[in-house]
């Protein structure tokens, strides 16, 4: 088995996906509308990206900014989106919702994982806004398909969350801490040595892959710099 660290890159379209794969990305997170921190892409966008690259894809299930699933009708729209994406061939997802008190919205999460039955999924940065991170991890521990937490360790980003990330890495294998840690959210190249030394081997970048900002495309050379740094 390879010990290579996982590099996941956010892609908005097929051109992003091609550039990310060319630069050495292992996996893509597919979203739209980064002004809202990433929402569910269309079935058609997924199909174009799936046809353009051959690396794994994880598709965001989120229709509004923030970490609330919204109303009953909003949840029904999410379920329909998941069903359409599954029909198009999507087989891995990114999701995660909190209630108004900062606790996991288990009703919505369980509804969605029933719809994507058998698929792997990431609980995204909602964990960084949770009232109780440890409690959230233990509550979700036995949900089918959950294999990754995308986290910066804190809502403010990796700079603030680094101590939490290191502490959680030290607990890998304990109940609630068996899912893979994928670090993202203000992640920089200079964070990597300490994270790698702690045994963390999953990294997620968005803006760092786009030298022109979110108005510009993923740059293969920028992704390659991350890949080479991780492989050094």
Distance, first to last CA: 18 Å
Which series of helices and strands comes N to C? Answer: EHEHEHEHEHEHEHEH
The average pLDDT score comes to: 96
Q: What share of residues is helical?
A: 25-40%
Describe the fold and architecture.
- The chain has eight helices and eight strands, in the order βαβαβαβαβαβαβαβα.
- The chain has 232 residues and is α/β, with parallel strands linked by helices.
- It has an eight-stranded parallel beta sheet with strand order 7-6-5-4-3-2-1-8, covered by helices on one side.
- The protein is globular.
- The protein starts with 5 loop residues before the first strand and ends with a helix.
Q: What is the secondary structure topology, with strand pairs?
A:
Layout: E1 6-11, H1 14-23, E2 27-30, H2 43-52, E3 57-60, H3 72-88, E4 92-95, H4 106-115, E5 120-123, H5 133-140, E6 146-151, H6 158-169, E7 180-183, H7 192-197, E8 202-205, H8 220-231
Parallel strand pairs: 1-2, 1-8, 2-3, 3-4, 4-5, 5-6, 6-7
Helix pairs in contact: 1-2, 1-8, 2-3, 3-4
Give a short overview.
The protein is of the alpha/beta class and 232 residues long.
Features:
single chain; alpha/beta; 8 helices; 232 residues; globular; eight-stranded parallel sheet; 37% helix
